[in-house]
Amino acid sequence: MIWIVIPVFNRKNFTRECLLSLRKQTVQDFKVVIVDDGSTDGTDEMVKTEFPEVILIDGGGDLFWTAAVNMGIQYALDHGAEAVMTLNNDTLPTEDFIEKTIEASKKDPKGVIGALEIDVATKNVIYGGEKIDWVLATTKNIIDGIPAPKQTGLHPVSWLPGRGLLIPRAVFEKVGLFDAARFPHYYGDVDFTHTALRNGFPNYINYDAKLMTYPEESGDRKNKVKKNLKNYYNHLFSIKGGGNLKDFTRFTFKNCPFYFVPSYLLIGYLRRMGGYFVH
C-alpha cells in the first residue's frame, strides 16, 4: 500500500485533474492524502464532494511545500504506511505510473525512486535525472548519455525532485522527515534525497514511470517570464525563488564535501545571479 501525499494551495482545477488521473491508474493499491494549506478557491469542498475517498488535511494556511508534505507524510506513517509518494497537484501520472513505480521498487526495496517528467504541451522530456560533479560544480543530465533504446528501467542519480517520488518507510526511520527548517520550499526534496543517498538509500530515476507536468507553473518560471528588478530580486531571495541564495548556501554546507565548498559556492552564486538573464 502506497500513501500518496499531495500539498495544495488553490489551483483547484489542477488538483481535480491530478486526482482524476489517479483514479485511472491500472493499480489502485494506494491511498491519497491532500494537505490543503488554506486554499480560498473551494479546493476543500471540491475534494470532499468529488473525491470522498481522499483524506483531506487542513494545513492551517501558513505552510510552504516542505512543511505541508511533512504533515501528510507524518499522517501516513502514523497510519502504518510502508511507502510514501510525494506528488504535486500540477502533474498528471500516466495510467500505469503507480504500476511501473511498484515494479521498480521491488528491484531495490531500499531505493528512493523518481519519475521521468514530460511536458504536457510539447511531450518533450524535461527531467531525466542528474548526477553532481562537486569538483566542477556542475550537474550532468544523465538522459543525454543514454541511447533511446536504453531509456528504460532504473538509473542511479545524485538526487531527485519531489514530484512522483516514492520513499520507503525505512528512509524516514533513518533520516527523519524533510528539512523544513532549512528548506521551507525549494531544495527540500533535493536535500532529502541526497541525505538518503549518503545514508545508504540509493536514488533512482525510473524511465518506465512517466509523469506529465506543467513546467510553466513553477513559481520561479514566472519570475523569469517578465524580467525586471523585482522579479530578479524574487529569483534570488524570495522563498519561492529558484535561485534563492540562502537556500543554495544552506544546501551546500549541508551536502557538499567540505573541501569543495568554496568553489562550489562561488560558481553557484555566479550562475544564479547571471543565469536569470540568459534563460
TrEMBL record:
One of its GO terms (molecular function) is glycosyltransferase activity. The keyword Cell membrane does not apply. Its EC number is 2.4.-.-. Coiled coil: none annotated. Keywords: Glycosyltransferase, Transferase. Gene3D superfamilies: Spore Coat Polysaccharide Biosynthesis Protein SpsA, Chain A. Residues 4-119 form the Glycosyltransferase 2-like domain. PANTHER family: GALACTOFURANOSYLTRANSFERASE GLFT2, RHAMNOSYLTRANSFERASE WBBL. Belongs to the glycosyltransferase 2 family. This is Glycosyltransferase family 2 protein.
